Amino acid sequence: xxxxxxxxxxxxxxxxxxxxxxxxxxxxxxxxxxxxxxxxxxxxxxxxxxxxxxxxxxxxxxxxxxxxxxxxxxxxxxxxxxxxxxxxxxxxxxxxxxxxxxxxxxxxxxxxxxxxxxxxxxxxxxxxxxxxxxxxxxxxxxxxxxxxxxxxxxxxxxxxxxxxxxxxxxxxxxxxxxxxxxxxxxxxxxxxxxxxxxxxxxxxxxxxxxxxxxxxxxxxxxxxxxxxxxxxxxxxxxxxxxxxxxxxxxxxxxxxxxxxxxxxxxxxxxxxxxxxxxxxxxxxxxxxxxxxxxxxxxxxxxxxxxxxxxxxxxxxxxxxxxxxxxxxxxxxxxxxxxxxxxxxxxxxxxxxxxxxxxxxxxxxxxxxxxxxxxxxxxxxxxxxxxxxxxxxxxxxxxxxxxxxxxxxxxxxxxxxxxxxxxxxxxxxxxxxxxxxxxxxxxx
Length: 443
Hints:
four-stranded parallel β-sheet
C-alpha cells in the first residue's frame, strides 16, 4: 500500500492557498448544470447489479410508537458501510479505458472515498483520496486498508477539495465529485428504485442531504415513476447548505456550514456548498426541507442501536432524527421510507453519542449536591435516590471544593433513570430535601 504523506499540521491557510487558478470540474459546471433523469438511474441499476448489495427496506417496530408505517432502507449494509458504493461503481464503469488507466482522484469525508477505492480495486483503477484532517479514523483506516492513496488536508471539506483539484491537475488524475458527478447521482438514485420495489405504496421518502447526490438521484427516479410520492430532505442545523442554496436560488457557500461542519456528529453531511447538478435535479422535486439538531441525531443513533440493532452514523440517522423531532407532522398515519444511508461511526464517538442521547431522553442525569459529611449523610442521599427507583452509575466525593465547611462535602452523581418523567420525579425529591444545595446539570 502506498500512502501520500499527510499534510496534517502543515496546512493552516484557506483552500485558495493551494490553487494558482480556479479549476473547473467539467462534469460539474455551475453555468450548465446537468439535470439527471430517471432513464439514467434505470441504466445505473442494470449496470451495477451484482456489484453492490441489494439492501432490504423493512418495517420497523418503532412504527406504532411513532404513529406511522415506517420502513428503513438499510444502505449502511453495503460492503463499505454506505450508499456510496452505488454511484462509485456506476461512475467507474462509465470511464473510458484511457481514464481508467490514468487513475482518479476524489475528495470525501470518508464514505465516498471508501466506496470509490473498493469499487476501483475490482476494476484495477488507481485511486487517490483527499480527506479533511478531522475525518473519522474508521473511514481513513478503511481507505488505507483497501489500498487507496490517502492524503489528509485541511480542516474542512472545501479545503480538501481545492487541494484535490490542484493535485489532480498536476498529476493528470481525473477528478470525480462524490456528490455532484451526474453518474454519481444516477447510481445513488437506485436506492429510490429499490424502495419502490419493496414498498410500492409508499407515501413519503425521507432522505438525509449533504452535497445532494443521494436526494438528487432518488428524487429523479421516484418522482418520474410515482409523482405522488413526497420527498423530504433532512440536514443538520450545523450544516444547512441545501436550505441556504434554496434561499438563494442556487448553490452558494454556506457560512453556517463553514463554521459548524467540523463539529457536527453528521460528518457525512458536512458540505459547505451543495452540488450544482444535484441542486438542479432535486430542488424542484423536494416537497419538504427540514433541519435537525445534534441532540436529535444522537437520539436517533441510539434508538437504531437499541431497537433495530443497527449501528448507523450521524448522517445515516438524520432522517430518523427528523421523525423523532416531529419536524414533518404530515408523516403521521402515512407509509414512510427512511433512508439509513451510512454506518461508519468511530466506536469512541458512538459511546459519547449514546451518553448524550441518554441525557436528552432523561435516562441519564447528573447533579452535584452538598450534603452532611457526618455519619449517615451519604446514606440518606443514596436512600432518596434508591426510593425513586433510580440507579447510581457514578459517584464522587469532593471535599476540597468546600474548604469553609468542615462537616459538609460535595457529592457529584451520575444517575440512570427510566425516562424524562422519572428524571423529573428524582429532581423534585432531591430539591425538596436539599433545596439550593442541589445543582442539577442539564447537559
